[in-house]
């Protein structure tokens, strides 16, 4: 949601002459779609600059530009009625697909339906658009799976997997079977019928992880996104395609204002738990790199790629990785120091209004080490707030809270473990060349030089304050 909201804002603020933007919204009726558009887009804080520009005419301007389309990317014809489908197909010249299920451990059938099948269904619609100039697919840099070292910007080949090699003359060059996207879609569908009941959700989640790891991906999310890219490559025909692969998307760098963020992004639960005194650290390689990029830079790169490839007329497929790990790496050890620096200077408060003191961020080498430290520290932290009650009720409550906190943190750590010790670095040579091809004025307006980010300033003075304002919303620590 964060990416397409910022994209809409930037397009309407910098290119107000745009005729209209059709927004596919998961809804049964146009009225329901309009309600979601109002609540989740028009009325959100990110549009405050546009509100200032248009004043009392803001809402009329937005409604004149944004056309809500009730549908569902998981359904045939995108769930759009035939009349609307034909009208849109006659009008659209650029399609941007950013729909995704980003749950790392989602049910296989759910994830593959939207992340793999979804792009295929959108492409089927794209081929009906007479004026179409470009199809843009927003993916993730982590579709590169468990590849190590410097990872280049290139599209996947059909049958390619991380653990094996792509097909040569129809034959696999490794012991790992060819990755057959159609077969994976069929497998997920058959398994969903077999394990259709909600009580079998665990089996479907395990199936996704099993398939992902068999072929060399960390989890169901990045595996199904990678297959979405492969499916697009196989069915696009002559449709020009740009695949945008951002890394970890975080708060705005400067546009329309610094620090705006929506929801907890990848590193944010750890940051907020640490600031509240509920985590002393995390299992992560202190010498490793977390690849972070501000959302407004991703949006600006999207628009730049749209401008370049939407006018070329070449039926090619291009890949841009909007990432920082090669040109401006943020080392986990440095990130831990910056988080500690911020919360030492500007601590969170408990329910009594007292500052929560944080110790230097700790780096744990294993899950066992992390779990044992976490249990002792969480219990000690919570017990210090109130004296034990005579009947022991408080002690039992504290212990229950501790167990839940420990389990939540362990679950978070298990999900992030493949990324906490990740050895891949995302090359962004193509993205840098895209920036260099722009005029000086264009670079000022659509700025995405990730190499120029001062991480100390961004983390301490932009991102964490934004996280506290827009997600944590200044809430105090809750103590049992």
Automatic annotation (TrEMBL):
Residue stretches making up the Thioester reductase (TE) domain: 5-302
Stored InterPro entries: FAR (IPR026055), FAR_C (IPR033640), FAR_NAD-bd (IPR013120), NAD(P)-bd_dom_sf (IPR036291)
Reactions that this protein is recorded to catalyse: a long-chain fatty acyl-CoA + 2 NADPH + 2 H(+) = a long-chain primary fatty alcohol + 2 NADP(+) + CoA
Nucleotidyltransferase listed as a keyword: no
GO terms, molecular function: alcohol-forming long-chain fatty acyl-CoA reductase activity; alcohol-forming very long-chain fatty acyl-CoA reductase activity
A GO biological-process term: suberin biosynthetic process
Keywords: Lipid biosynthesis, Lipid metabolism, NADP, Oxidoreductase
EC number annotated for this UniProt entry: 1.2.1.84
SUPFAM superfamilies: NAD(P)-binding Rossmann-fold domains
Taxonomic superkingdom: Eukaryota
Domain Fatty acyl-CoA reductase C-terminal span(s) in chain numbering: 401-473
Described function: Catalyzes the reduction of fatty acyl-CoA to fatty alcohols.
Family assignment from sequence similarity: Belongs to the fatty acyl-CoA reductase family.
Protein's UniProt name: Fatty acyl-CoA reductase
Species per Swiss-Prot/TrEMBL record: Saponaria officinalis (Common soapwort)
